[in-house]
Every structure is written in structure tokens, then in C-alpha cells.
Write a structure and sequence with these properties.
Number of domains: 2
Radius of gyration: 24 Å
Helix content: 25-40%
CATH class of the largest domain: Alpha Beta
Order of helices and strands: HEEEHEEEHHHEHEHEEHHEEEEEEHEE
Number of helices: 10
Largest sheet: 6 strands, mixed
Structural class: alpha+beta
CATH topology of the largest domain: Rossmann fold
Shape: elongated
CATH superfamily of the largest domain: P-loop containing nucleotide triphosphate hydrolases
Oligomer: single chain
Length: about 325
């Protein structure tokens, strides 16, 4: 697809009071509003059961909508059949047909649409080339590695030229090394193709590395929407700060704050102001930085992250008493729980 044709197909996706309730009154998605710009890489991030996969499946048409609307550009696609929505979904399990070759798996949607064999195979070969799978076109899924199967599944989703590509935990089945490699390739493909990617994940690291827009979900609702930098640097709620990790949530005389662990200062001598007295519980060397777990009776999971050079200039051992302080500008106020 040319850049010009992609631009004419570009369209924002908007969710309006989107709701999903299951039998027994359980609410999986609770009247969420969200706009995803055309061509963005958006990650729906949250713990298991937060509603992110139900949201993705409603966009795809694999789950019915209880209430609300889904708009793709000017079209209301809420009740349209899956094939008419302009979306394509890449499933967590990849869902490849075991008896078909990689080529025929990729071409399958065009076969169902009545496209002749020569035309659909030509297009399938183009997409296998895009994902570096041309040498494996004749292999069946059982003869492919997990990463290779993922590439075939991606090519199969792309063959219908969707406006929006939906990815459900696409990297969860891969080993850590391959996950990092495929993460980079997903971002590259998204930039080259110009499609909107909506990617469900429970991995904070994955969302930060891939997305232009992060949507943090909890109990069927949206806690915060923003760029990775905005979400991490200025968490809007206590849940966001704790779920992202790398933050301390501290109750001060003037209210609750989120403080990044790498902005948390430690000293043996009591500094000016109102520092917190704590004790070092554990020290973990992480290469470029050292993470210290601290014990405080009223602040759970208190941590400090120090650059490697700073720590080894004046090492602090487990059991030592320290004072915790921070710059006023680094304290992000949080609303009351």
C-alpha cells in the first residue's frame, strides 16, 4: 500500500461510553471514552481482569457491545460484522491453521473473499517478504519457531489492509530475548505501514517501549491516558504510580505524593527539611544502577534507585539507617484514594 493510499484510509478511532457487562451483572468495561489518533501506536495497559482485552474484542467485533459506540472515522462500526469494520486482529495464540503452509495461512482471508489463487499468493508473498519470512513460505506452523509463527500471524492480519490492527498480548509467548527483538520490529512495521496499532499488554516495559499513547486501565475504567513520558513522570492516581512501578507513594503532612525511585535521595546524615527515617532492607545490583529496598513501618515498598557510580562512591549496606528526602519539584501530588 502506498503512503498516499494509507493517508486516505487513515481515521481516528473513538470509543464513546463503551460498556461490556456479562451475565450475573459483572461489568468488564465501564462506560469508557477514548480517542486514538489515526496512525498511532496505542497500548491498553493494566492487570488481568481490568477490561483491556474485552475492549479490544469489542473493537474487533468478536465481543458484543452492551452499551456505547465505536466510531472509526465517520463510520459507526459498533454492530457491523467483523469483516466490514476495517480492523484486523492478531490473536495471542496466533491461531494459525496447522494444516496450511505459511503462504496459505497468510492468503486465507483473500481466499474466503473469492480472490483468485495467483493474486492472493502474490500479495501473500509480498507480506511474507515484509516480515522476513519468504524462505519459510512452504512450511507449516509446526515447523516454525514461536517468533516465526508470530510473523506469519502478523502478515495474515495485514493482508486485509486494515485501518486498525489489534494485537492481543502478541509478545507474551516469546522468550525475553526474542520479545525485545520483536518489540522493535513491531514498532518498525507500524511506522512503515502507517496503520493504527492497538496493543493489549500487562507489561509496563512493553507499553513504554512501543506506544505513542498509553491507556492505563483498572476495574473496567480508564485511570490515565497519555504519552509514556507523561504517564511515568506524572502519574494521575495512586494506582497508576504503583502499577507502573519505579515510584514511591508517600503520605506527607500536605497530602499524598508519587515520587520516582530514581529521584529519591538517600543520606546517612539528616538533611534539612522533613526527611523520612528508614532502614536498608536489601541491595540489588542491576548493572547501570543499584536498587535499594527500604523498610519503613508506614510506607510499603519504599525503594531508591541510585546510579552505579553514585552508589559505589559511598556504598550503603543492608541494615544501615538512612534518611529519605526529595526535591519539592519531583513530588507529584496524588488525589485522595
Amino acid at each position: 500500500m502506498t503512503a498516499e493510499s494509507r493517508s486516505t484510509r487513515a481515521a481516528d478511532l473513538e470509543l464513546i461510553k463503551l460498556t461490556k457487562r456479562y451475565g450475573g451483572g459483572a461489568t468488564a468495561v465501564d462506560a469508557i471514552d477514548l480517542r486514538i489518533k489515526a496512525g498511532a501506536y496505542c497500548c491498553l495497559l493494566g492487570p488481568s481482569g481490568c477490561g483491556k482485552t474485552s475492549t479490544l474484542r469489542m473493537i474487533a467485533g468478536h465481543e458484543s457491545v452492551t452499551d456505547g459506540d465505536i466510531l472509526l472515522g465517520p463510520r459507526n462500526i459498533t454492530i457491523l460484522p467483523t469483516a466490514q469494520r476495517g480492523t484486523a486482529m492478531m490473536f495471542q495464540s496466533y491461531a494459525l491453521f496447522p494444516h496450511l503452509s505459511a503462504l496459505d495461512n497468510v492468503a486465507f482471508s483473500l481466499k474466503m473473499a473469492g480472490v483468485d489463487k495467483a493474486t492472493r499468493h502474490k500479495r501473500a508473498h509480498q507480506l511474507l517478504e515484509l516480515v522476513d519470512m519468504t524462505p519459510y513460505a512452504d512450511r507449516k506452523p509446526g515447523q516454525l519457531s514461536g517468533g516465526q509463527q508470530q510473523r506469519v500471524a502478523l502478515a495474515r492480519a495485514l493482508i486485509v489492509e486494515p485501518r486498525v490492527l489489534l494485537l492481543d498480548e502478541p509478545l507474551s509467548a516469546l522468550d525475553p530475548f526474542l520479545r525485545i527483538r520483536m518489540r522493535a520490529e513491531l514498532k518498525r512495521w507500524q511506522l512503515e505501514l502507517g496503520f493504527t496499532f492497538i496493543h493489549v499488554t500487562h507489561s509496563q516495559e512493553e507499553a513504554m517501549a512501543l506506544s505513542d499513547q498509553v491507556v492505563v486501565m483498572n476495574h473496567g475504567r480508564i485511570e490515565q491516558v497519555g504519552s509514556p513520558h507523561e504517564i511515568f513522570d506524572t502519574p494521575a492516581t495512586e494506582f497508576v504510580a504503583r502499577f507502573l512501578g519505579g515510584h514511591n507513594v508517600i503520605a506527607t503532612p500536605t497530602g499524598k505524593i508519587a515520587l520516582r525511585a530514581d529521584r529519591t535521595r538517600l543520606s546517612r546524615a539528616q538533611p534539612t527539611g522533613e526527611p523520612i527515617a528508614a532502614r536498608v532492607r536489601a541491595v540489588e545490583y542491576q548493572g547501570t544502577y543499584v536498587q535499594l529496598a527500604l523498610h519503613h513501618e508506614h510506607i510499603p515498598d519504599l525503594t531508591a534507585t541510585l546510579p552505579e557510580a553514585d552508589y559505589y562512591a559511598a556504598p550503603i549496606a543492608p541494615g544501615e539507617a538512612v534518611f529519605v528526602s526529595w526535591a519539592t519539584a519531583d513530588a507529584r501530588p496524588l488525589p485522595a484514594s
